[in-house]
Every structure is written in C-alpha cells, then in structure tokens.
Design brief:
Blueprint lengths: L3 H10 L6 E5 L12 E2 L9 E2 L3 E4 L13 E9 L14 E4 L11 E4 L3 E3 L3 E4 L9 E2 L10 E3 L7 H9 L4 E5 L3 E7 L3 E2 L10 E2 L2 H11 L3 E8 L3 H13 L4 E5 L10 H7 L3 E5 L3 E2 L5 E5 L2 E6 L3 H19 L10 E5 L10 E8 L16 E4 L16 E5 L11 E6 L5
Parallel strand pairs: 5-6, 13-16, 13-17, 14-15, 17-21, 19-23, 22-24
Antiparallel strand pairs: 1-12, 2-11, 3-10, 4-6, 4-7, 5-9, 8-9, 18-20, 20-21, 22-26, 23-24, 23-25, 25-26
Helix pairs in contact: 1-6, 3-6
Length: 415
C-alpha cells in the first residue's frame, strides 16, 4: 500500500491539464484563469476627488481657523462623469462630487461637512493639506501591471478587477467533465420507500455539489446494480463518452459483489494504485484509460467524503491548471485525545473545543482548540454535518494526546 503522500504525488503525476476557452464575465466565478491579466490603462485614469466637498488651492486657505474663516467664491460644480475640462481659478473654489475629475490647479478637497455653505460662497475654518482627499491617477495600478496571474481561481474580488478593465470575455481553463456512478443493490433513490436491507443513496447527493465546488461539470449517471453485466455497461458507456474523470462509489473493496475494479481492468483501464495507508478510505482505487482518470471511492459515506476531498479535489484543480491544489491545512491544539492507528494516516472529524467570541478561537491565547466529534466510524456520516473540520494524524504518529498541535482543516475555508 502507498502512503497518503505517495498516492497524492502519483495521482498528480497522471493528471493532464485541460485546454483553454473563454467564458462570460458573469459566469466566471470559480473558473481558473488561463492567462495573466495586465492593466491596459492606469487606475484611476485621472486625478479625482475621494469625497463630496470643495476643490481648493492650499495657499488660499493658509490663514483659515476656527472663528476666523476664509471665504471663497463658489465657481460652479463638477460631478462624476463630467467630461468637460475645468480649471480652478486662484482665490475661488469648485464644488466637487466623489469620483469627479479634479480640476486643473486644485491641490486639495475639503469635505462638505467641514465647511459652511452659502448660495455663492463657502466658509472654511481650517487650512488644507496638499493631496487631501484626492485620488491620484495610477494609485490603484499602472498600465502594464500584472493584476491577476494564470492559475488563479476567480472569486468576487477578482471579478471586480476584470470588470473594471472592461473585460466581458475571460480566458479560462475548461471545466473537467466528470461522470458520477454509485454502485450497490442496496441503494434506493430518496423519495421512494425502503425495502428490507435497503438504504437511501445519500453519498451521490453530497458528492455532486462537492465536485462542482472543485470546478467540475458533473454528469450524474445514477446507480448501478451489483452485477458484472450492469457494472460493465455503466463503466463502458462512461469510458466511451470521453469524460475527463469517472468517479464511482462502492464496489471497490474485496467483497464477493465488488465488481468495479475487475471490470475497469477488463475494459482496458490501467491500475495506478489500489489501497492507501489511511483511515477512513483505505480501499481507494485510481486507474487511467487514455485521458480518462478513474477514481474508485469506497462505499462508506465518510470514506467517500475524505477521499474526494483529499484526492479528487487536487486532481480536478490540477486539470484546470490551478496554481494551488493543496488543502488549506492549519494547526490546532487538542483539548481531548484523538485516537489513531500507527502505520495509517488517520483523518478524524473534529469540533471546536473552547469557542471564544467568534465561535472558533480560545479567548485566552488566541489558539484554535479542538476535540473529536462524536461518532468516528466511516459509516457515521451524521457527524459530518455538524463537525467544524478534519484532523490529519500522520501514520508515524499513532495518536494525538491532549495539548498536542496537529493538522486541522477548517471546513469553512473550502465550503
């Protein structure tokens, strides 16, 4: 069996980067940028006011003070979007709105709440400083600056940058096309009555949105029964359809009706690895035929979740040439011991142990403190719904005692 790190490294070495395409700006959220974006112009493109107020020359207010105001005649108004070129005459002021272009000769803007306004004159009771409340051209970025780098997953802040450049079409990597297949005679679609020995097919309904959050275009192929014929038909059809990845759940261990792995071999899929030294998720399978990666995830719900998060996520992000495919592990302190098995990397669900004001951080020292969630069996999926995150205990460690610092994945950072 491979270690977790060996399996991840081998997996990523088998991933091909997908081609490029363009997408509308309004549909670019979560997509991976395919090329660097540089600034075609300065931002702001011109000097402008940062406040609603009055444009002035600094020397004209040199003697202003409380009780002894300086009065300047009001020469007009400049509004945002005003295309007319204006100049500020010495000894006068112009009313100016936020974002409006700064008139020639103006050296500062005084806020409207700091003056006394009359119909044709303005009273100032304080001097002004050079560049006060002024946004200078190019303060945000300069022409030619690299604003966004290829490999970045686009989120709302990046979309605002792209929109500010006037870009309506964005160069991105193609989304991975993924076939999702659930294996098991015992599975029943939610909404239907359960028969003896049956359970509802729950993992498909968690796995699909999980894969979509990794950028995949998911094609749900439904459930397949535990027979060689049904398994061969479902997998053969998915392989022939040319998906970038096929993801199955169940049927990949050593049971008498686990047909996924031998059927994939029969269909010409080359096995890359089978079984990883981890719990849960030991019977994880990876194979490849042509450009298609085949993931055989275990059947237990928690095992599906962990293996999808640790392995499938990295593969799908690398297909999109994402700069960072690693999970955002941080460090946390244990308030209770975490059990493990030496020789296996252990992934345990965890809760926050000593919440502070924000619900996550110890009030005394600022550290994140955690404890095991109730119910750690790979079938006990209900604890996933309430757990704060996942703990990773390396195979050489064996366990984590009270007060130890260990790897912690806060679910809020990825969902």
């Amino acid at each position: 069996m491979l270690s977790v790190n060996e399996a991840l490294s081998l997996l990523l070495s088998k991933v091909d980067v997908l081609g490029r395409q363009t997408t509308d700006l309004v549909h670019a959220t979560g997509r991976v940028l395919a090329e660097d974006v540089t600034a075609p112009r300065d931002s702001p493109p011109f000097d402008n006011s940062a406040m609603d107020g009055f444009a002035v020359r600094v020397r004209d207010l040199a003697g202003a003070q409380t009780g002894v105001p300086v009065t300047l005649p009001l020469g007009g108004e400049i509004i945002a979007g005003d295309a007319a070129s204006r100049a500020l005459e010495p000894g006068a002021t112009l009313r100016i709105n936020t974002g409006a272009p700064l008139p020639a000769g103006a050296e500062a803007v005084v806020r409207i709440e700091d003056v006394e306004l009359h119909s044709d004159r303005v009273l100032f009771e304080a001097p002004a400083k050079p560049n006060q409340n002024i946004r200078r051209a190019g303060e945000n970025f300069r022409t030619g600056d690299c604003l966004l780098s290829a490999g970045l997953r686009l989120r709302p802040p990046q979309l605002e940058v792209l929109a500010s450049l006037g870009l309506a079409q964005i160069p991105v990597r193609r989304r991975p096309r993924v076939a999702l297949i659930a294996s098991g005679d015992e599975l029943v679609e939610p909404g239907n009555p359960l028969g003896p020995g049956q359970i509802y097919d729950s993992t498909r309904f968690a796995l699909r949105p999980l894969l979509e959050s990794f950028g995949a275009e998911v094609h749900d192929q439904g459930r397949v029964g535990d027979t060689p014929e049904a398994t061969r038909k479902a997998l053969g059809s998915a392989l022939d359809a040319g998906f970038d990845a096929i993801i199955t759940t169940g049927g990949v261990s050593m049971g008498s009706h686990d047909f996924i792995r031998p059927t994939l071999e029969e269909l010409g899929v080359e096995q890359i690895f089978w079984k990883v030294r981890q719990r849960p998720g030991k019977p994880l399978y990876l194979g490849r035929r042509g450009p298609t990666l085949c993931f055989g995830l275990p059947g237990n719900p928690v095992s599906v979740f962990v293996t999808a998060l640790v392995y499938v996520r990295s593969a799908l992000l690398k297909m999109q040439d994402c700069t960072n495919v690693d999970l955002p592990w941080s460090r946390a302190i244990t308030d209770e011991p975490f059990k493990s098995t030496e020789g296996f990397t252990f992934f345990s669900r965890a809760d926050f142990a000593q919440p502070g004001a924000d619900g996550t951080v110890n009030a005394q020292d600022g550290s994140i403190r955690i404890r095991p969630s109730a119910g750690q069996g790979s079938h006990q999926f209900s604890s996933l719904a309430t757990s704060a995150g996942l703990v990773r205990i390396p195979e050489e460690q064996g366990a984590a005692n009270v007060g130890e610092t260990i790897d912690f994945l806060d679910f809020r950072l990825i969902f």
